[in-house]
Amino acid sequence: MNDDSTPLDDDAFGWALRMEGPDADWDAFTLWLEHDASRSGRYDRAVAALHDVTADVAALQTVPIPASGLIAANDDMPARRHTRRWIGGALAAVLAGAIGLGVWTQAPYPYAVETAPGEQRTVALADGSSIVLAGGSKVRLDHNAPRVATVERGEMLFRVRHDAAHPFTVGVGDLTLADLGTVFDVKADPQRTRVSVAEGAVMVDPEGAALRLDAGQAVIAEGDALRRQAVERNDVGAWREGRLAFDDVSLEEVAADLSRQIGQPVRAAPAVARRTFRGTLDVQALKRRPALLGQLLDVTVRQQPDGWTLEPHP
Hints:
By secondary structure, this protein is of the alpha+beta class. The protein is 30% helix and 32% strand. It is globular and about 70 Å long.
């Protein structure tokens, strides 16, 4: 059996369960593994624990299999896989006792999709909707609630298939969004959240402020305050093509957006962090000529092994 002295990792155990199923998402699993070198060992321990518990249940199972409602024995089917398919109820009971009811009831269903800085990824949802994640972003989803998403960090573009009877909802921080047939962008920074609508409409905080955003509108949420503003519809989600549009935003925010797009840290020195910028940046051009960023922002770009720093001119 697995060493009981070390608690099982809920996240790793959830992946162990999901990867045993027929709908295993290998792309998401690979990204999860690559994000943290320690995850491979944690996953291996979770798989070992799962196999141990399965073996225990198989050994304890003495009730004959009823003829109806269950699969027939198949000599060509590996014994372990066959056993797993017909002892599900007993396995659930043992798992609930062995690792805690909360892990068993929740781990198989929620899952997270995240991207590394400089990466983009599109997630196709079962209802026909999709989410495009910018670099350095993370969204949490749930197989049992396919019309719900939680933005944990970064920026992403939602293309939602509208269903009036079952609205698609997005949680980001303390804010809830409900689609009204929509293409919209969500950017979650530590200090504030920005929601911009390219098509259709979004209802912001439907149980509270009930602020409707139509195409060409955005809202910035800072604390309890909501501030509406106009946006260019073509600028919503333009980061997918490597174009970043800003309208009087701080260089600190510009640096954070660039970090997600170019795949390395960009920092704004305190002396320039609160300066504002209005304009559009071409990410690929800046990668080729970082000094161009200095001209556009009126700063000095200091290139270092661990990234770029935006500093005032000497």
